[in-house]
Amino acid sequence: MMIVTISEKGGQQSQYDFSTAAITIGRMKGNDIVLPKGNVSKKHSRISVLDGQLFISDMNSTNGTYVNGRKVAGEQPLSETDKIYIGDFILQVQAKVAGQAGPPMPPQQNANISDADFSGPGMAPGGPRPPAPPVAPMAPSLDGPSGFAGSVDDLFGGDTDGPGHRPSRNTIRESAVMRDSGGYGAATGEFDEESKTPAPAVAPGPGPAPRRRPSGPSPVPPAPPLSESGGFGAAPSRRDSGGFGAAPPVEHEAISSPGRSMDAVLAGRPAPPNAPIAGPRAGLPAGRLGGDSGERAAHRPTIPPQSIQSEFDEDFHAAQHDVARVLLESVSLDEMVLEYPPESDVFDSFKKEVSAAVDVVAPSVDREALVDLMTHECVGLGVLDQYLDDPEVQDIYIQRADRILVRKNGTLSVAERAFSHPSFLMLAAFRLLGTREPVTFTDEIRFGDGTRAHVVMPPIAVDGPAITVRKPPVAHLSLDDLLERNVFSPGIRDFLEHLVRAGRSVLIAGPAGAGKTTLLGAMAAHIAPGTRVITIEESAHLQLPQDSVVRLEANPAVGYGLKTLVRTAVAMDPQRILLDECVGEEAYEWVSSAASGTEGSMVTAHGISAASALERIESLCLLDNPASNPRGLREQIARGIDFVVVLNRSDDMGFRVRQISELQGVDLDAFRLNDVFYHRVDGNEEQFHPTGYIPLFYEDLRDAGVDVDFDIFRD
């Protein structure tokens, strides 16, 4: 005597009203509830009620029965709020008191089960979102509007709260052509296209016929550009410019098989009496629940809150401001050359002028550091030079002249130093671009060591030039290094190594900055020596130990983008192709290659879950082949990708393996995925869990004599 509510990931919810005290659940006929999925055993679980108390027991199933994420061992009590995980299904049971009416007839959605609940074994990890990260306090505003025209008093003595003037349209020409910068601002893998997976049918077996019912802060004004006088510098390059060390030059860059469908499983089987097939909810297409897509809600990542510490030295910045005021009384901004890096005699000349201005101000801060920084503002990139040469700094984000964020040793903080005035920030931006009159308002500059600087100019950047600098990784981490950093569990580490050695093709997905390239390099290091591997990157960062590796780097300026390089790699007789950061038409070329000869290839892409990453790959493939049949394209992707590894950023400024899923094929119009591992955070504790599902290739490895540990699939 119980009411059972059944939900399948992305499918319809149904309710059964039983008048017996015990029911069985399984895949085959003869059970009271039949769940026709391959990850459900023939006789899987038993639920009973005694004196109003519910009990559940597992019937020696292969993948186990889970209650609230914990595996059922023996018979255990069950409450009405507990969620039972059996394969791809979630069940909730309510005991009926004698005389209690069954559930209401109109379709409704069970309020106790949401799409985000599909986070247990066999499901995608999920859970409640944490609160939004706190907003960091704004740094003090600079004095006065920015500008180059007028007297020094006009430049520095303006009203601190007054509005600044916009850049002159005559100085920075407007351009309708905005060059795509590639590595920044790429899509995150979210799509508005709704899932069209038909609702699964859950057929009851013989026995008492159940009654089935559907259920359903005020910004600092931007600095105007420098005057049009002054020379045009060559493409900037970093080298020793007197004080911050040498730097490299800058270059400007213009086993899968389709599974048996549920219709085939249930073909020819009529519905039992009093058990009509549930229809879709009113106003919704079949197979959809109300609200957001079930898959997307289940896989929505939780971005950890990050508090930003401030190291900003207000006294030093005030001294910078005073020295700049005195300096510009004797040196015009037009006299500050655009060439970068400057010649040594130019550096020495401006250093004398800066020293004289510092002597006039006589600040109570480090004189040598102040002179050096102000000299670099006059002839170089200012404080940016200092952080570019700091090996502990990984990323630099210039938000405005007096607010710079740096990521140092994985921790984001407000930088200690900043620009003395927006005019010097504008000058630094022009030196990076190599011109005072950029033809576009966004551009990307690459240094010789792989460092990339992305520049956004006013009027698009409201608070002055916004510069994002990302350095290439200095250390190339191994799987053991990532294990020490708690990126995954020891079991997952072994699984990833065997995954690579077994020649399975892998899609590594995650948001920007989630460590996709780092994990790609760590996994690729386990490719067998002598394997012909070709790596394709926008900027060559991967350093693999094999002597047989060929490294290719994109150069769109001369017509060699990622798509062209993938085609070139296919002609080079590769055994594996590693594509880092798939963002465009190259997706179709890679999938075609991985599905037809380069097994064991790997690719990284943006995505917040296994399903959304595959959807993104599908959409990118359509860019190159829009006339392809959708079903055929999905089947080709399923042949080319065996596993999906999903990463996410963590609250300790690192990243975690959030989900590992096997792509088994295509069911109707959706990818068929089976989760192998998932990561769950409960309060302040985080754990990696296996789902109990064992991929078939592990058995193949065992049969081939490889020493594999099956205990990693047990929780």
UniProtKB/TrEMBL annotation:
Low complexity bias locations: 100-112
Database matches in Gene3D superfamilies: 2.60.200.20, 3.30.450.380, P-loop containing nucleotide triphosphate hydrolases (3.40.50.300)
Biased composition (Pro residues): 127-137, 216-225
Superkingdom classification of source: Bacteria
GO molecular function term, any single one: ATP hydrolysis activity
SUPFAM superfamilies tied to this protein: P-loop containing nucleoside triphosphate hydrolases, SMAD/FHA domain
Coiled-coil ranges per UniProt: none
Matching InterPro entries: AAA+_ATPase (IPR003593), FHA_dom (IPR000253), P-loop_NTPase (IPR027417), SMAD_FHA_dom_sf (IPR008984), T2SS/T4SS_dom (IPR001482), T4SS_GSP_E_ATPase (IPR050921)
Region listing for Disordered, in residue ranges: 100-259
SMART domains according to UniProt: AAA, FHA
Family: Belongs to the GSP E family.
Protein name as catalogued: Uncharacterized protein
Lineage: Bacteria, Deltaproteobacteria, Bradymonadales, Bradymonadaceae, Bradymonas
